[in-house]
Design the sequence.
């Protein structure tokens, strides 16, 4: 069968690549065409456009590149129709993907599957109308989404497990790097490590990294190590490091989390990855106009928490310092407890165990691929 996939960022490239591998096992004759990244290209098929040429986040970048975005959208619609796949598989990236879903649903008979459901439970809940109308099958990787979609909105979905748990479990089982080797290969000192994960986008890093470094630098007996985002360059990070002893490493985030004593992490998948490595963390996400956001949060956001760890557990497992609460003193105070307070560390690790239990079944891409091939086979 022919599968057309669309992703819009690095995490989508990873998840889609794993799904493609699983689809090839279930369907040896699978053909792929996609808007994606290098990981998807390594699996095989035809890449129409790299996600880096499409990903514009935030109001100003979107407005500045609106013509490019609209051109990409027109190209994508035409390419899907011309190739006429057996299914269109959308991966997260709702601003772009839901518009594609609407067009394909209205103008073709190609079924639309959505792998990794849009996070409309956090905001833009009105998008449920688009999903109900334009998406034939929705595949969820977060257990609490079952209640949101099925009970609240009467829209049946498939929970297939969580690929991040699969990826971390596989990494721990197959990567045998020792801490000594990790330290030596990256020219680190023998001091214990505080990991800094400041996001994957330029604006996130600009807003968070300086404050993270300021807060963590208080603990002189620790070394600070930044997990470099694959989409950003060393030159970009150097303005934040300058002449300090802060180190930066790329493409080794999992080993950094495995060997770190604690981490400062922006909200997103990274908070869940950190939890699955049992690394104590403080969730930090600075926002300009923080006091205004704190006020609007009560109106706009539909959830109590912003980190996946707390959302999955449905209670506070990790501290969240968001908007105006994210300042160097608050971060330092929280971090101190995670470095020196054994009972606080123990309580957080117990919360991590609860998160693992709620995530449930293993093999998310394999489970999703099995369902997809079965459903598509019935309609052929």
Sequence:
């Amino acid at each position: 069968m022919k599968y057309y996939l669309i992703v819009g960022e690095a995490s989508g490239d990873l998840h889609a690549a794993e799904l493609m591998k699983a689809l090839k096992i279930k369907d040896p004759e699978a053909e792929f065409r996609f808007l994606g990244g290098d990981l998807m290209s390594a699996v095989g098929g035809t890449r129409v456009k790299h996600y880096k040429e499409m990903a514009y986040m935030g109001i100003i970048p979107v407005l500045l590149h609106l013509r490019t975005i609209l051109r990409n959208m027109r190209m994508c619609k035409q390419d899907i129709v011309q190739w006429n796949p057996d299914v269109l598989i959308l991966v997260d990236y709702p601003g772009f993907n839901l518009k594609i879903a609407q067009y394909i649903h209205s103008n073709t008979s190609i079924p639309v599957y959505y792998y990794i459901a849009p996070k409309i439970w956090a905001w833009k809940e009105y998008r449920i109308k688009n999903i109900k109308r334009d998406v034939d099958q929705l595949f969820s990787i977060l257990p609490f989404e079952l209640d949101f979609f099925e009970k609240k909105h009467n829209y049946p979905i498939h929970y297939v497990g969580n690929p991040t748990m699969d990826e971390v479990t596989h990494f721990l089982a197959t990567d045998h790097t020792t801490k000594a080797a990790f330290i030596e290969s990256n020219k680190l000192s023998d001091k214990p490590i505080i990991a800094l994960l400041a996001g994957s986008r330029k604006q996130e890093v600009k807003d968070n990294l300086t404050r993270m470094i300021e807060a963590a630098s208080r603990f002189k007996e620790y070394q600070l190590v930044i997990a470099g985002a694959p989409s950003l360059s060393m030159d970009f990070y150097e303005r934040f490091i300058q002449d300090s002893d802060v180190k930066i490493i790329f493409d080794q985030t999992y080993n950094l989390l495995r060997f770190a004593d604690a981490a400062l992490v922006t909200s997103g998948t990274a908070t869940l990855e950190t939890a699955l490595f049992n690394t104590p963390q403080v969730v930090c996400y600075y926002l300009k106009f923080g006091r205004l956001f704190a006020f609007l949060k009560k109106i706009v956001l539909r959830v109590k928490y912003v980190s996946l760890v707390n959302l999955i557990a449905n209670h506070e497992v990790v501290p969240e310092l968001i908007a105006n609460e994210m300042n160097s003193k608050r971060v330092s105070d929280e971090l101190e407890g995670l470095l020196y307070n054994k009972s606080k560390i123990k309580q957080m690790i117990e919360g991590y165990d609860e998160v693992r239990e709620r995530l449930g079944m293993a093999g998310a891409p394999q489970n999703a691929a099995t369902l997809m091939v079965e459903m598509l086979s019935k309609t052929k």
Observations:
- The mean pLDDT is 90.
- The first strand starts at residue 2 and ends at 6.
- DSSP finds 18 helices and 13 strands in the chain.
- The chain has two domains: 2-161+361-379, 167-359.
